[in-house]
Specification:
Elements (H helix, E strand, L loop, with lengths): L17 H9 L8 E4 L9 H26 L9 E8 L2 E8 L3 H18 L7 H6 L4 E2 L2 H16 L9 H7 L11 H8 L4 H6 L5 E2 L13 H15 L5 E5 L2 E5 L8 E6 L7 E7 L3 E6 L4 E4 L2 E4 L14 E8 L2 H14 L1 H11 L2 E7 L4 E4 L6 E2 L4 E4 L4
Helix pairs in contact: 1-2, 3-9, 5-10, 9-10, 10-11
Bound molecules: adenosine monophosphate (AMP) and magnesium ion.
């Protein structure tokens, strides 16, 4: 058994130093991840402040108890850790991998897979393959990196170009890559969208080497976290982990059900910021991924401009939606589709869902009302007005 009284931290909501947090990993009373969030970094609790206060009180009592126990009867203590969390920063966001009834090493191994994908796929790190490709070099990708690239090109095609990983020159023009925001002129955008063409980029990829046509740049921000979740989940399962919650910056992946055999509760963030969440999904063994304009935006002259771009116009996608959440088995697909359906809008998005299937969707409209696809009925709760979209009709 691990009784660690050291310095570390875990879920964002429990921003408390060290010894207390580590005990949270080992105490059944402090089970983290009872309520996980899609669309925001970190794990939250139903009533965060109350929860934190209660948890702190319990933690202090348990600290003394466990410290005494550790000193006196270390060898006799046979209770397995309830949960352990690896918290780290990768892909420009905070990530948590929490395993239940398993060794933390499994979470660390999953973390290192995410870290190496981050090193390879970051568009800003000078040593990455994506950076090399974007500067016109013949860039070599690892097996995982190459698999993601070819999946991404396929998904761009499948979504009819609503997802287009060659959108980077446009992202740069808006300043989303540097945080130096500006509104590009019409003619500038018209020139830039000529360089947005995933099919030309796909032709320049031979399965390992990518040599982009001049002026083209790729950005895997719409799919990388989803793919990383797939590889991390694969590694956890291979290590025998049966219950885990991965929160990769709001991309949630769930291994199994919770330790009681019940579905996990995943909150869908309120895109309007009025409350913490607008809906709760009770789900297991799947991914829950949210894309929304609220995640990254700037305001100028009373207008809001966000980071999800319509590849046809180079403008932020405005389709009457505040956010889209996708639930499905494949992390990379959920990630790709959450971005793509945000670009498509509700009507085309539902049409796409009817044609392609294999996933469920939740649309939050600009007026706050919600549409869920029929497969989410029974696992969805919300106090907002909501309706169900059916496969037929
Ligand atoms: P996500 O948060 O998964 O919806 O991905 C958004 C990120 O993907 C943005 O920050 C951009 O880096 C990139 N992106 C924006 N628009 C698109 C698009 N239409 N297709 C592909 N990637 C995009
Ligand atoms: Mg995405």
């Amino acid at each position: 058994m691990h009784i660690r009284i050291g310095f570390a931290y875990t879920s964002n909501c429990l921003k408390k130093p060290a010894f207390f947090i580590e005990l949270a990993h080992t105490s059944p009373l402090l089970e983290p991840g009872r309520f996980t969030f899609s669309g925001i970094d970190g794990i939250i609790y139903e009533n965060p402040q109350k929860e934190v206060n209660e948890v702190r009180k319990k933690a202090l009592k348990i600290t003394y108890f466990l410290a005494a126990l550790a000193l006196c009867v270390t060898g006799l203590c046979a209770c397995a850790p309830k949960s352990e969390t690896a918290s780290f920063f990768a892909m420009n966001t905070l990530m948590d991998i929490t395993v239940y009834g398993a060794d933390i090493q499994a979470a660390y191994d999953a973390q290192s897979i995410v870290n190496s994908l981050d090193r390879e796929l970051s568009a800003t790190s000078e040593s990455s393959a994506v950076y090399a490709a974007n500067t016109g070099e013949a860039a070599r990708f690892t097996e995982n990196g190459a698999e993601l690239l070819s999946r991404a090109f396929d998904l761009c095609k499948e979504t009819g170009g609503a997802l287009d990983i060659t959108v980077r020159p446009v992202m740069e023009a808006w300043g989303f890559t540097t945080d130096e925001y500006r509104v590009p002129g019409e003619s500038e955008l018209a020139e830039l969208v000529k360089k947005v063409d995933f099919s030309a980029a796909a032709e320049s990829f031979d399965g390992a080497l990518l040599t982009l046509p001049e002026g083209m740049k790729i950005d895997l921000g719409a799919v990388a976290k989803g793919y990383a979740a797939d590889r991390a989940v694969e590694s956890l399962r291979a290590a025998g982990v049966e219950h885990a919650v991965l929160n990769l910056g709001g991309n949630v992946a769930l291994v199994g059900a919770n330790t009681k055999g019940e579905p996990w509760k995943v909150g869908v963030k309120d895109p309007f910021g009025k409350s913490s969440y607008v809906a709760v999904l009770s789900v297991a063994d799947c991914n829950v991924v949210t894309s929304g304009g609220y995640e990254r935006y700037f305001e100028e002259n009373g207008m809001t401009y966000w980071h999800i771009i319509d590849p046809e116009t180079g403008m932020p996608a405005r389709t009457g939606l505040a956010a889209v959440t996708i639930v499905g088995e494949s992390g990379v697909e959920c990630d790709a589709f959450s971005t793509a359906l945000f670009v498509m809008g509700e009507e085309k998005g539902l049409e796409f869902w009817r044609q392609i299937g294999g996933f469920e969707a939740l649309f939050i409209r600009d007026d706050g009302t919600i549409v869920i696809t029929e497969g989410l009925q029974g696992s969805f709760e919300s106090s907002s007005d909501w309706e169900v979209a059916h496969r037929e009709g």
